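Notebook, p. 212. Picked up where the previous page left off. The plan for this session was modest: take the two constructs that came back from the sequencing core last week, fold each one, and keep the raw output in the notebook itself so nobody has to go hunting through shared drives later. Recording the first one now, exactly as returned: residue sequence, then the structure token string.
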Amino acid sequence: MRLIEILRCTQNDSVAQKDKYELRMTRKDFNNWAKRIPAWKNVYLMSISGTLICGPRTKDLAKIVSPGQIVVIAHDDLDRVAAESLVQAKVAGVINVRRSITMRYPNGGPSVLDSAGIPLVDCVDANLADIGLFEKATIDTDAGRVQFVGPQGSEGREVVVWSHTAIQKAMDEARDNIGNELRTFATNTLEYIDKEVDEFFAPLELPDLRTHFKGRHCLVVVRGHDYKKDLQTLKPYIKEYKPVIIAVDGGADALLEVGLTADIIIGDFDSVTAEALDGPELIHHVHRDGRAPGREELEAFGRPYKEFVSNGMSEDVAMLMAYEAGASLIVAVGTHGTMVELLDKGRRGMASTFLTRTRLGPVLVDAKGVSRLYEGRVRRSDIALLLISALVVVIIMAIVAEPLRVFLSGLRLTVRDLWYSISDWFS
């Protein structure tokens, strides 16, 4: 429980007229309560307090944060997947020491937090080391300030508050700027294609895999956009075809969340938990120039692993490995295929993605977004058909059931006798 001040905004989000309330409730109770007020277009938290937790990597913080804590991140252009992990962790608020929206492109993270009712503020004149000295903070979105409290005292800082209106305005401006970003993105892509095309199509030396691929389907899972919904939708396919399941880093934990397990985990192992490593084959992605990011983390787990050498993103390398191993069909979930998704991932181009999909051709099926192909909903015609069916059943029962027939016959005779009595009285 915490003390929460809330602000009622008018239809045009003006704060000239405002009502302040003080309520003692949990965030879940607040969100449920706010939904019951249809006259209010937007309800924003004005002030919220909590203990602090800081870290340079948002996805790492999301694993260790406790519900109700305020997270301090250093994340330019907060992406959608990172924001969804913070929402799932039930954080109370987010303080970013970088710019959550640089307006280079329309990144989706701030909108995700806004939809979840989690306040997001930018405190760009601070750094993680300074804020790490404090234990608690109070975010005041009305005043645009954050008050930090620690053993050494308290300190207030001005912040940029990302309200619903501010986010929408920034997104509109980012869409206007996306042409410049697209030009830079395409230039980088073509430059890397020219440099890497020969190496990319060079023969690949597969590690000694215990998993059999030849003639089987393969499902490659990345913790990307809508991965959880897509995995749920694909469960009948997984049950019928029993594909080899390759998880890319945190994709192994994504599978566990929906009751599935990976046969192989590949990547730099920077975002996978130790629990997910029990059972699957572990393949460390090593680049052709010898770079092997994450090797120390993988060795710290103390589990045996093999190496696969190839350039590109780990998700592309996973698909190439399945292709070279003889998979008859490769189904990809959560992979990054658009400019915005790759920019969210910090990529400045898509040479690896383009070359991989060119090489695999029709063997690759991108199942991202498959959950949106059909969304079950109750139609009016379905309700009408149900009511008609029920009425037909009642009529049939009335015709066939002997006790009901006797009752209806008696009711008919009673009505007839009553009619005759009334007629005799007037005659």
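Okay, moving on. Second construct, recorded in the same format:
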Amino acid sequence: MTSVSIVFQIIAAGRKSLDMLQLKLIALLFLLSVSFGFTAEAQDQILPDSIAPQLALTIPTTTNSLSISEPTKSARDSSSNEGLIRNSLTTHSAKRLPSQNPFRTVAVSVKGSTLGAGIELATPLLRCFNIRSGISYLTFAYPFGIDGVNYNASLHFKSSQTTLDWFPTGHTFHISPGVLYSRNTVSSVATVPAGKNFTLGDQSFLNSVDDPVHGTMSVIYPHNLSPMLLLGFGNTLPRDNHHLTVPVEFGVAYTGAATIDVNLSGTACTSEGCVSFMKNPEAQTSLRQEIQILNEDLKKVPVYPIVSIGVAYHF
């Protein structure tokens, strides 16, 4: 496995607390409750009583004169009033389109992505613009090996993203610039099987049986805030009376090139004899060369790919 392939499997950034993510979750729940309040208030409003006057039929004031044309006139008036009643009922029974005012209506979505499992809250800004914000979380273990050294990495992805959705065609296709805030950590134990060969830099070693080489590895991104750009299909806030949608997105976040740090201790042997990694300058020089090679490979991939699919419900 090459070092470049690690980029898509080992994602890490920062080692700070989750205070911002917790605050953001509270804010999302608050906005959702406010939206429910607005919806209930709108449903409690009663339409003006404008139907009753239109349903009233005109009753003739005089009945003492009859003519041959009277049945024809009555049929015509009856037909006219019947059409008025039908049109009135149709107009008032039609469903109203969702409000386009910010925070007057919202949508909640759950999704799975390369950032992990997440939840999002969206509200409209204008007819062709939405704003979304959500949080994601993912944790898993991933074992791999490089040049004879085995790593058992434990990854914890914690992130939050806010995007502005623009629908240039007025349909489901959207372009979504945004910001990704991440607090990711990667920790790993590094080991070399006893009596096996491994390479650091341009130097080959034979691992000791009595005191095998072992250590730790970490991957860190240079900053927590990253610009991102997504393209996708599906509107979590459809401009009709549909409630359920399945949005799909793909794009990248410019996280900057990650850096790897490795610390090793133990005893290994070369053709010149056995040395302690912690005390021998030549062994430490070989270790630094290996770390530099890995980081040079990571510089070629300064972005993190994002692919997601979810289910959204518009209230």
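Notes on construct two before I forget. Residues 11-41+97-314 form a domain with the Porin fold (CATH 2.40.160.170).
Flagging for discussion at group meeting.
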